[in-house]
C-alpha cells in the first residue's frame, strides 16, 4: 500500500508516519520509484505498536526506539528479546535513591515475597527495582508491607500473567508475538488500574451499605463476597 | 511534639512541612506561644498521607488539596467522602477525546464488562472514563478487547478490592480509614504494576523454556501452571 493508504488504515497522519520513518521507529517502505514507496501489513502492525507505546504508554521516542531495537535484535533468542523489550518500557517507579534508608529492608521483603511465590529473583530486572521502591515507600510511611498484605497482589499478578501469555500466544509469528507482548503490557496497564478503582468503589459501596450481594448478576463471581 | 520532632519522625524537612502548612495540606499546630506550635499524631499521619500522594502518586499540590478536602468534608457520609477522595486521585488515562471514533463502542464494552462482573455502572466515575479510554485504544489498535480477554482483569481486580478493603478496615477511626483508603490506592498501584511485570517475566521464562513447575517452592501457588 502507499503512504496515503497506510495513513488511512492506521489513523495516523502522513506527517506523523514520515516523522516515525525519519526517527527509525518504522522500517523504510519498499522503493517503487524515486518518490514513492510501498508499505505492507508489517508496517501497519509496527505503526500500531508505536502508537500504543507513545500515545497510551507515554513512552518517549528514544524509549520506543530502545523497545523496537530489542524486538528486532536477531542476535538474541526469543526470551531475551522479550525480556529486553519489556524492560525498556517505563516502570511504575524509578529504582530506589542511593540514600533511601528503607531500601535494604524493602529489598529483603521483595526477595522473600518472590521466593514465596516460587518466582526466580532477578534483581537487575527494572521491575524488581520498581517493586523495591514501592515497598520502601510503604515501610517509610508505616503502611502494611508484610506477606499477608502483599501475597495476594503477587498471586493475582501471577494468574494475570498466565492469562496474558495466553493472549500473546494467539499471535503466531515470533516477531508478532514479541510486538503483542510489548503492546499488551502497555495497553492493559490502564485497563487493570481503572478496573481496580471501579472494583474498590463497588466493594466500598457494598460494605458501607451492608449490602453483600449487590449488582445485577455477578455471573463472573469475582466481586462477590 | 514540636516542628523539629514532627520533621524527625516523618523524615520530612521542616521547610517542606512549613510549605505544606502554608498550602493548607496540613492543619495548623496547636499554638503554645507566639512562635511555637504543638503537633500530634494526627499531624504525623496526615503528613505521611501527603507524602504518599505527592512523592509516590505524583499528585499535584492542588490535587492533594482536593483529595484532603473530600477526606475532611464532614457534610458527606463516609462512602461519599471515600468516593470523592479517591476520584480526585490521578487516573491511568484521561477521559476519551470528543472526536474519539471508538469511544461509543468502548463504552458499550465497559458497561457490558461491569454488568457481567455484577458491578453497578457509574459512568461519572473518572475511573469508568479511564477504562473507556483504555478500551478505545485496544479497539483502535486492533488488540483483543472482548469479554474473554477482559473478564480475568475484572475478576482479579474484584478479588484485590476485597483484600484492599480488609486492609483499610484494619484502621479503626473513620477518618483514619479514609486516609488509609487513599494512601493504599496510591501506594499499592506501583506494587501491583511491578509484580505484574515480574510475573510476566517469570511466566515467559517458564513457557519459553518449556519449564512448567520452576521456582524454588511456589507454596502460594499463584504463579503455578
TrEMBL record, chains A, B:
<keyword id="KW-0238">DNA-binding</keyword>
<dbReference type="InterPro" id="IPR009061">
    <property type="entry name" value="DNA-bd_dom_put_sf"/>
</dbReference>
<feature type="region of interest" description="Disordered">
    <location>
        <begin position="206"/>
        <end position="225"/>
    </location>
</feature>
<dbReference type="GO" id="GO:0003700">
    <property type="term" value="F:DNA-binding transcription factor activity"/>
</dbReference>
<dbReference type="Pfam" id="PF13411">
    <property type="entry name" value="MerR_1"/>
</dbReference>
<dbReference type="InterPro" id="IPR047057">
    <property type="entry name" value="MerR_fam"/>
</dbReference>
<protein>
    <submittedName>
        <fullName>MerR HTH family regulatory protein</fullName>
    </submittedName>
</protein>
<dbReference type="GO" id="GO:0003677">
    <property type="term" value="F:DNA binding"/>
</dbReference>
<feature type="domain" description="HTH merR-type">
    <location>
        <begin position="1"/>
        <end position="70"/>
    </location>
</feature>
<feature type="compositionally biased region" description="Gly residues">
    <location>
        <begin position="212"/>
        <end position="225"/>
    </location>
</feature>
<dbReference type="InterPro" id="IPR000551">
    <property type="entry name" value="MerR-type_HTH_dom"/>
</dbReference>
